[in-house]
Each structure stands twice: as structure tokens, then as C-alpha cells.
From TrEMBL:
UniProt binding sites for NADP(+): R34
Residues covered by the Dihydrodipicolinate reductase N-terminal domain: 1-122
Role of this protein: Catalyzes the conversion of 4-hydroxy-tetrahydrodipicolinate (HTPA) to tetrahydrodipicolinate.
GO cellular component, one term: cytosol
Source domain of life: Bacteria
Keywords: Amino-acid biosynthesis, Cytoplasm, Diaminopimelate biosynthesis, Lysine biosynthesis, NAD, NADP, Oxidoreductase
Stored Pfam families: DapB_C, DapB_N
Protein name: 4-hydroxy-tetrahydrodipicolinate reductase
Gene: dapB
E.C. number(s) listed in UniProt: 1.17.1.8
Amino acid sequence: MKIAIAGASGRMGRMLIEAVIAAPDAQLFAALDRAGSDSIGTDATAFLGKNSGVLIASDLAALDGADVIIDFTRPEGTLEHLKACQAYGVNMIIGTTGFDEAGRAAVAAASEKIAIVSAYNMSVGVNLVFKLLEIAAGVLNQGYDVEIVEMHHKHKVDAPSGTAIAMGEAVTKAWDKALKDVAVWSREGITGERQDGTIGFAALRGGDVIGDHTVVFAGAGERVEVTHKASNRTIYAQGSLRAARFLAGKTAGHFNMKDVLGLN
Ligand SMILES: NC(=O)C1=CN([C@@H]2O[C@H](COP(=O)(O)OP(=O)(O)OC[C@H]3O[C@@H](n4cnc5c(N)ncnc54)[C@H](OP(=O)(O)O)[C@@H]3O)[C@@H](O)[C@H]2O)C=CC1
Ligand SMILES: O=C(O)C1=N[C@H](C(=O)O)C[C@H](O)C1
């Protein structure tokens, strides 16, 4: 697999480059960062103290000839890459979070021309948790208040996390509702009593926390909590490589990590 990495000098970009050069079935084909970044023109593996011969570029023509790009950047960057990938016939793994509705629609539309795996969380554990939440929400569907709490490092720019949103969607899938109709994204001041059937979100930021998520089902006399804690970003990089293998040979279609892991 000839793999291009977007956001090559970012936290996830570096994890992905390390995972790609260690994988026997993968080749680091290109590394991208945005124009003006100090990293442009430097070797993509310089941070590991070695040379790969792949220089970090901002010109998206570097994608020509790649099989797939793995993109963990920002919505505006991913949407630029999406256009280039359609032009060059390059498949995409999208880990970026924080898209608005128009951004999500652009990804879905592009999947008619290229094959895309997009997921707010690429880890095996979190995708299993999504399934567990569907089961829990199906059983605890009356008399239980659902609250979702997440904590991430101080550099994270979007809230709540994509994973927290996807956890909310797993719950509302079991309830046959739309998350946007029941979500309470934050609380402040005299909020009034909690409304039954809503899902509350709380986002904590600090230090170097990689990603903690807890979904609380609070009932009368008991509380069920489903928690996932990430302790190393390699889980997202390894999940992305599994997604790249899953896309090999595919030319169109929109998939998620549950498809990749056979959980659908
Ligand atoms: N789905 C999943 O499993 C996971 C998703 N994520 C998501 O991945 C994204 C990146 O996270 P993280 O690596 O921590 O972030 P970083 O800020 O460390 O890295 C982002 C990288 O993208 C680059 N970038 C920013 N804006 C653009 C743009 N407009 N065009 C091209 N490149 C751009 C940055 O360049 P510069 O430094 O010059 O700004 C940087 O190299 C986030 O949305 C995060 O939520 C993170 C972990 C797991
Ligand atoms: O920004 C991060 O770091 C992470 N972002 C993703 C999210 O928004 O859910 C996945 C993971 O939690 C780490």
C-alpha cells in the first residue's frame, strides 16, 4: 500500500508515519503539511532520527500515485485533501473531527468517486464500546438519565469530542431518535431540572490526557457507567492501517470502523 500522511508533523501525523514505516505491507509514499509550516522540505521521519527520503510537502500534487491518504488534520484541511483525492483517484482514511453538517455531506458525496473510511475514533476498543452502548441503551431505555463525560489534552480544539458525539449517536440509535433532538451540549446557570430523554455532554480539557470517555446511565437506585481510556495514540494509528488494508481494491463507498472491524 502506497500511503500518504496528512498533517505529517502533528501528534497523529507522527504516530501514523511511525506505524507506516514499521508495517511490512505499507510504504510511506508522501507526507503533507500546510504551506508555511516549518516542516515543509524536511524529511518525514526526521523526528525519529532517521531519513526516509520522503520530504514533507504542501503541494497536493504529491498525492498523485498514492493508494490512500490517512488524514488527521482539521476539517478545512481534510476538505481540501478530499478534492485533491477525487482528482487523483486516491482513497481516504479520515480521522479528523469537528466537521459541520456541510463538511459531513461533502465527505459522503465524495465517496461516490473514491472509497473512504471515516471514523471519529479508529481504536478497536472504542468501536466495541459503541456496540456495548447500543445494547445498554436498548435495555436502559426508561428511567435512566444518560450523561457523556470526556477528557482530552489541553491542545484539543473541538468539543465535545467526535467520540463523545458518536457515543451519543450509539445511544440514540437504540432509542430510534436523532441525537440533535435530545442533546444538551452544555449547562450553565439556572438550568431547571433535567428533562427526561435528554443526553447531557461535559468536556474537560487539561494536561496530556490522550482521550477518556464515560457514558453514565443514571437510574433510581443504580448507575451503570461505560468507560474507555486511551493510554497511547498508537491505537488510532493501528486502526487506521487496518482501515487502509480494508480499502485496498475498493474504488468507491463510505465505510466506518465498524465495517472495517466486522462489527456491523
Ligand atoms: N479518529 C480518531 O481516532 C482520532 C482523531 N483525532 C483527530 O485528528 C485531528 C488531529 O489531531 P492531532 O494530531 O492531535 O492534531 P495536531 O494539531 O497535533 O495536528 C494537526 C496537523 O494537521 C495540520 N493542519 C492543521 N490545519 C490544516 C489545514 N488546514 N490543512 C492541512 N493541514 C492542517 C497541522 O499543521 P500545523 O501544525 O501547521 O497547524 C498539524 O500538522 C483532530 O481533529 C483530532 O480530533 C485524533 C486522534 C484520534
Ligand atoms: O483530539 C484528540 O486527541 C482525539 N480526538 C478524537 C475525538 O475527538 O474523539 C479521538 C480521540 O478521543 C482523541
